[in-house]
Request: fold
Amino acid sequence: MRRSRRRGKSQPVQLKTEATIEMPITLRGLSEALGRPARDLMRTLMQDGEMVTINEMVDEETALMLAMEHGVDLTIKEQKDVEEELEELFNKEYPEEELRERPPIVTVLGHVDHGKTTLVDKIRSANVAAGEAGGITQHISSYQVDYNDKKVTFVDTPGHAAFGEMRARGANVTDIIVLVVAADDGVMPQTVECISHARNADVPIIVAMNKMDLPDVNEQKVLQELAQHEIIPSEWGGDIEVVRTSGETGEGVDDLLETILLTADLHEYKGNYDRDAIGVCLEAFRDEGRGPVAWMVVKDGTLRIGDNVLCGGAFGRIRAIYNDKGEEIQEAPPSLPVKVSGLDSVPGAGDKFFVVEDIERAREIADERQHHDRTKVLSRIKVPAGLEDILGAIREGKVQDLSLIVKADTPGSLEAIRSEVMKFEHPEVRVNVIHEGVGGVNESDIYLAAAGNAIIIAFHVIAEDRAAALADQEGVEIRRYQIIYELIQDIKDALEGMLSPERVEIAAGRALVLKTFSVSRSGTIAGCRVLNGNIGRDCHVHVIRDQTIINDYPIASLRREKDDVKEVREGMECGIRLDGFNDVKEGDLLEAFRIEEKKRSLDDVPAKSESDETPDEE
Ligand code: GDP
Reply:
């Protein structure tokens, strides 16, 4: 040990102890990130017999070694892969001044046979000029109508499961949901599923109470059933508009459109007309003459002829764009549904599309995707939701909700489960039942769980075959229970696991710094005498200077003479090197402690919010 060479600075320099970098990185970049002069890093490398110039790349291992040697806790951020980049591009937000109003995109959902298709067709035929009416008999995935000089886009998804699937893939384009409920039938199981999908997508709902032309409808009964599912009609003081319609006679269609436009006004849907277009493919097929043809809705930006497009595993240069009336157009602004040709293959429904500058790049990504298991590529963005994963996510401070979908054999069971799980009250964690229903676990449940990061609880019921397969594919956990007590216990355990453990400091001993030594490879060593207690290698240390705690650091090495030791007792002298702190001074007091983690129980009242600081190495 040599004597320390004190730099003649009056103020102690607060050296960085933590840094994050992204690979690749040059020595210069690393030096900047670590806050250590590049020549110091070079010197360290040279001592290892390595010559690296300032502009040369350093690999991960070297970067970590250099950081450690210089007392910096280094995190290497995973490089964003291309899928993540695209994902970011898809969700990119622009400053207000670049945005302009765009038409709302509406999806019509409802229980089978409640009249979705009839209503959607009625809206369309009522809003096209007479001359065109002949051309609209053929079914299309989406269209735009003009009403009172405003436009509304309707997207026809083949049901709420498909809607959930798009959302699970992050490909939701819907701004407003019209929930069709037949007035003669009322709220049915699929209506409830639709409500859950809409609510979890955080999309406003407008109810179309349909088939109002039928003789024996009971409006109050329908409103009541809706209210039971927390759809409180505005006429009852709630915030959901209920519009009376008939797909058969066209009654209420204008009213519905007006309500949609009012809702749109309220939410101010906006788009950036100047950015490169992004959107979603709704449906695609191979056309005899035109090759692959895709129905797409532009979510944002303007799509133009000649644009290079990537869509799922397909790519190509847009050759032609058609609107919903089959007319050729040159460009498609936000919210417009269009049919395009020019792709090399047929993309899947729900695939996102992107305009990219470089067609070769699009080809590469498309090839790569086709290479992979398609579904994996598409669902890779979301986090699979198993209890373990959720616990992991919670440890990183991401989730406080334990989201559940509860399916059970009877309404009574549901009621019992709900009342039990709602009893768990705690300011830091809670159960959030995002959907519940009587019956087996179906595909809609899986998509809902996938999109909402929820676990499915199946009480006395099983999953339908296709749903089970889908759950595997989407990484959704289905937990089956026969006994309510076990279910509740598991949920309690999960919630308790979600509580970050209580951390208690146990004092170990105190040491006074008598002298400091600087060792070039490892940093500053404090020569100390243990005043009381024992100081262990596994301890953390509060560094106290002039009665003030500077910070906490783990002990990096503990020595007696030249030997590493596990513990040093009262009255003895030792050398202590701290991990991440080289600015120890004579006269500093090192107060050693150990951290004990105590699992918390839901029954404990939390003392007060703790600091999130986690010592390294834990
Ligand atoms: P979807 O399954 O929700 O798309 O329902 P459809 O639009 O296919 O309609 C189911 C059935 O209900 C069809 O036989 C329609 O003719 C009938 N229907 C739909 N809307 C109305 C309506 O407003 N009034 C009456 N009376 N029948 C309707």
Remarks:
- The chain has five domains: 18-77, 100-270, 278-376, 400-498, 502-598.
- The two ends are 30 Å apart (CA to CA).
- Residues 68 and 74 are 8 Å apart (CA to CA).
- Residues 1-11, 130-137, 373-385, 605-618 have pLDDT under 50 and may be disordered.
